Amino acid sequence: MRRRALRPVGLLLIGATVAVAGVYDETVRPVLTQYCAGCHAGESPAGGLAIATLLEQPEDVALADRAHWEAIARRMRAGEMPPPGLPQPERANTVAVADWVEASYARLDRSQPVDPGRVTARRLNRVEYANSVRDLLGLDMNPAAELPPDPYGYGFDNIGDVLSTNSALLDQYVKAAETIARASIPMDGETIEPTMQRYLAERIGQDRQMRMRVDHAFPADGVYTLRTAFYQALKDGTRVRLTLSVDGREVGADELKFYYQIDRAIEAVAVPLTAGVHRIDATIEVLPEPEYKGKPPYLEYVQVYGPMKVLPAAESQAYRRFFTCGHAPGKHEPEACSKVILQPLARRAFRRPLRNGELERLLRLAAMERERTGSFEQSMRTALEAVLASPHFLFRIEADGAGPKPHPLSDHELATRMSYFLWSSLPDDELEQLADAGELRQNLPGQLERMLQTLAW
Question: Which has more confidence, 27 or 444?
Fold first, then answer.
């Protein structure tokens, strides 16, 4: 018996508002019945895809099984179904089936209510975390350096579905919060064990240079010693000048006359520096007399040691920056001062107005710690750690609406999206003020222009 020839149909109107009439019965069903249903039938259909059962249903009922239809279209378009070695339909009919599937679901999607779905709560990546801490506390110490690298998805490290969280990472966030709290809130009588870090030129990509530049994170306001040295031998009697600068300010300089036994280094001793990242520059130059024509001297390292002494709390810039209630150390009014400090701090950290009970919980935590330790500063450290370890700081959370229907972002959520998209950090005061007043959308073009102008291209 001779088989009836299948009529090829090309669905050229994939974007049309209606499906091409009769394509399912005249092309799709016959093609799949002839070439696919034999293997994809019975109790154990190939690949778990029961095409024979699917084709028994009317078109509108069959289309309810979207996952299977999209799998069929994908495999037929890729030439994977029917598999090589089995009879193959004409290419025009294969394309017709795949086009019908795509056109049918495009039509159904346009006829359904719009559902944008739910936004994944995005965890701050390491760059966003460090920037947010800097802008929240004025403390540029890159606490994210100790966090593990962020996973990438499609070449990006800020995709919410990729930035997973586990108990080990949360433990590291808690440790980072403790480090930040110690640096933000110095306490009298507290000591920090001095450490030494040496930046070798060859390991930081600055080998065979007469200038070195490093950015070092100083753990506390205190006194430090800086050191630099050059490493190759010069002709006896050669005079060189070494200098050390911090943030463009010269803190140490000396002239050395080279002999084989000399210490080829200089130190800047007892340099007072605030907590955070400072840029250290070291340079060496050969002085003109006596004349020297050999290879120039190259710097070997920059070394930081300290703090040998931590500044008293009252003299600390970090202390004055954090304790905004204006009281001298040891003379705070705990209840009033705690609220003055924590309310704007938590509000900015959470990137929205505080909800009922959030401030009260922080104040109770601070009061419990103050009662336990007898220290107002320690109570503020504990409260700050709680803010920094809160999911409302670590994640960008966009709240659900009152019902199941889609709803616009709040002005604060919009401000957060804008600031992390362009700045990778918290919204600034101007964005927050407009969001508080409910006026951000009306001023959107001007704010975007302002934000773009702050970027260094």
Answer: 444
